Amino acid sequence: MKPTIPPLLIYALRRLLQAIPVIILIMMGTFLLLKMAPGDTVDALVGDMGGADAAFIARLRAEYGLDQPIWVQLWRYMVKLATFDLGRSFVYEQPVATVLMDRLGTTLLLMATSLSLAFSIGITLGAFAARRAYSLADNLISTLGLIFYATPSFFLSLMMMLLFSVKLGWLPVGGIKTIAGFYTGWDHVVDVARHLVMPTAALSLIYLSFYLRLMRSSVMQVADQDFVRTARAKGAGETRLMVHHIMRNALLPAVTLFGLQFSTLLGGSVVVETIFTLPGLGQLAYQSVIQRDMNTLMGIIFLCSIIVILVNFLTDLLYARLDSRIELS
Amino acid sequence: MTVEAKPILEVRDLRIALPKGSDRPFALQGLNLNVHAGEIVCMVGESGSGKSLSAGAIMRLLPEPHVTVAGGEITFEGEDLLAKSEAEMRKLRGNRISMIFQEPMTALNPQKTVGWQIDEVLKLHMGAKRKERQAHAIEMLKRVHIPDPESAYNAYPHQISGGQRQRVMIAMALALSPKLVIADEPTTALDVTTQLQILKLIRDLQKEEGAGVLFITHDFGVVAEIADHVIVLRQGEVVEQGPAGQVLNDPQHPYTQALIASVPDLLPPPHKPVTTRPTVLKGTGLRKTFAARGGLLTGKRKAVVAVKDLSFELHQGETLGVVGESGSGKTTVSRLVTRLLDADAGAVEVDGTDLLACSPAELRGMRKHIQMVFQDPMASLNPRKRVVDIIAQGPIVHGEDPEKARARARELLELVELSPAAANRFPHEFSGGQRQRIGIARALAMEPKVIVADEPVSALDVSVQAQVLKLLAELRHRMNLSLLFVTHDLRVAAQLCDRIIVMQKGEVVEAGFTAEVFADPQHPYTRNLLASIPGRTWTPPYRKTDAA
């Protein structure tokens, strides 16, 4: 017998192969788009210095390789990228990889908490509302969902700051920790958690309303299906129906949305991180655009693409696990 | 039939109220019935007769509060079901009263294994250990004759066939030897050969267990096959009930007589000298394989041969039936000859021109010679267009003057026996049978040489089906139409087709004059098909009466 490769491994390998051209296309597209924007790193640097003479500017450009034609710059960048070298940030005077790793933790923490909160609470509320469709509770939940759905995150953030930080003084306005606190151990954890409450709430409330609405309609649809009637005819009670028959099937669209939302959440975190001055990738991206820190920006996009592709892969695995009709092959 | 003194189920004067604004206030009005141990009671009726709701009422599974029991009594083994609490009902359901549903496709939870779903009933009512329950479930799968029960126990519903799924449903329903089994159209979605097996299975198991069965169906053939006692429902009212033999062979009520007369009988029409007339449609060496999909980077799927080397000739004024079970490739044939699907090889000649070799521009011109009538009369008419525009659209596209085309459309409506006032209405305002008439008028508007009808009466109630078939036969006679008629229903084929082609797995196993094939089938598959027609030994009385 010849050794068999587990199908999951083959599937993972194939997905990896598929991801490579996607990432190359994303990087090339972003590179060209950024080059089309007026101004480069040198303009930003010189602007910060308050002006410099033309010869100095030309020398700086030559030093950074910015005097070359765009396609040469692109080629050099892509060749370096192929060895996972993201280059140096001219603003932070550090390798881009180091800068990114410093910031990644904060963003992932923010995203993971917001998304899991949004997912779990949204699904619970949605299922609850569907089981009591058109009742007072359902109307209340659905209306609240609609309000959150329609409120932009920056507005929500500012209003929360006004209420909880300025008026009530319960929560810190921004940052990831109290700078002069030097907390350690559990005190540190509590401190960080207190700083994250508002950003997480701002980010998750909107996504929560997505899940809520999707889950409500999904549960109502599944509850009408024949196999639910079969289960009733078998003598199953409402709890059993909900757990084993309805939720199991109604969750599938929500899982799909989970994968899709991860990418939009990265974009959403730019606004929230900037407003709450959290040292995360979103804030870094915003500053890099202002300062024309090309390498950092490209690095962020590279990292985000990988995260999104990875999450989508994991979602597909989860989906295949949840839906017995799908086979990975 | 020995009838014990005390029936298992007694329904007295049951009334079910529909929500306000429905077409009638009561779905069911004054239903009386008894089901005794070891008896199969068939409830027959057309769609909207309230037969499924009465099953719902007995199980106390009506879609409340919209539909409610408004009065009457339901007594099961001496206990008043309507007075029971929800918790008490839950103990009965699946345990002493169980139910088999129509759609084996959707009635099982797609995310749970067959074993899990049978085990659910046992877990709810049996109170035995896991090992015992599993042994019992596998024993049940064995009793419903599922091949390899141990592996089926771990299979998901999508991994087994439709017939096997229905067997699983039956295993589930009979797992705890219920006293009463309610079967709601359990074989309607199945092929004839599978249907017969399932009917036999229900009959056998019911005899072994001595349970009472309330069997709901619309098909008199099935009634003839299985019933001891028959109840005929119309619009929520019982029009007739009695022992099966009496109702089937000597129906008293005019409605029952009309219904039974609508059942197409199995006597094919006499030979017409059709083969001497000119050929209008000729298929040669048609072949279609649904290719294997996927490759290096995506999932693979196996290639399916839908049609293998099919040749046929359709003469002017002739009706050629293509019959077969699901998966036989008969629908693919109808799509190939109309070039809605491109064949891999072969030729389709319409009046001597090869349709498959036409350029797109030529094809557009050829389309008017060959028209289709589809199965689902709801889905095949554009819901946003008025009937007159639906019918006139074809000729207008082909360059006819719009005014003339509309005038002609109105004439056609009369021809298919619809009032001219129908012209300005939308499809949803019509019943299924009327919509199918519109579909036929739409096909006729092009004055085609050939009409391809893909299961045109399968979605219709039997009395409506009889009317549409009669209309088709008349039109064929009057307009000298040539029909390629695709159907799974051998009774329908026997009634309308001059010649038939029997298909199995993409291959023609037998072809010939309908009368000859029915009288003396050569191929074992044809013989099996014919032997599986429900109620084949029963010849409906009133055959020549004008139907409903």
From TrEMBL, chain A:
- Please give the GO cellular component terms listed in this UniProt entry: plasma membrane
| CDD domains in the record | TM_PBP2 (cd06261)
- Gene3D superfamilies attached to this UniProt entry: MetI-like
Has the keyword Cell division been applied to this entry?
no
Q: Which sequence ranges form a coiled-coil region, renumbered to this chain?
A: none
Q: Where in the cell is it found?
A: Cell membrane
Alphabetical keyword list: Cell membrane, Membrane, Transmembrane, Transmembrane helix, Transport
Keyword Acyltransferase included in the entry's annotation: no
Q: Where is the ABC transmembrane type-1 domain?
A: 104-319
Q: Pfam families annotated for this entry?
A: BPD_transp_1, BPD_transp_1_N
List where the protein spans the membrane: 12-34, 108-128, 140-164, 192-212, 250-276, 296-319
Topological category with respect to the lipid bilayer: Multi-pass membrane protein
Q: What is its main location?
A: membrane
| GO BP annotations listed | transmembrane transport
Return the InterPro entries for the record.
BPD_transp_1_N (IPR045621), MetI-like (IPR000515), MetI-like_sf (IPR035906)
Homology family = Belongs to the binding-protein-dependent transport system permease family.
The molecule here is called Peptide/nickel transport system permease protein
- Give the originating organism: Sagittula marina
TrEMBL record, chain B:
- InterPro entries in the cross-refs: AAA+_ATPase, ABC_Ni/Peptide_Import, ABC_transporter-like_ATP-bd, ABC_transporter-like_CS, Oligopep_ABC_C, P-loop_NTPase
Residue span(s) of domain ABC transporter: 9-260, 281-530
Keywords from the named record: ATP-binding, Cell membrane, Membrane, Nucleotide-binding, Transport
Query: What Pfam families does the database record attribute to this sequence?
Result: ABC_tran, oligo_HPY
User: Where is it mostly found?
Assistant: membrane
Provide the topology term for how it sits in the membrane: Peripheral membrane protein
Q: Which GO terms describe its biological process?
A: peptide transport; transmembrane transport
Q: Where in the cell is it found?
A: Cell inner membrane
Can you provide one Gene Ontology molecular function annotated for this UniProt record? Answer: ATP hydrolysis activity
Q: Which GO terms describe its cellular component?
A: plasma membrane
NCBIfam families reported in the protein's UniProt record: PRK10419.1, PRK11308.1
What family, per the record? Belongs to the ABC transporter superfamily.
The name this protein carries in UniProt is Peptide/nickel transport system ATP-binding protein
Source organism: Sagittula marina
Biological classification of the source: Bacteria, Pseudomonadati, Pseudomonadota, Alphaproteobacteria, Rhodobacterales
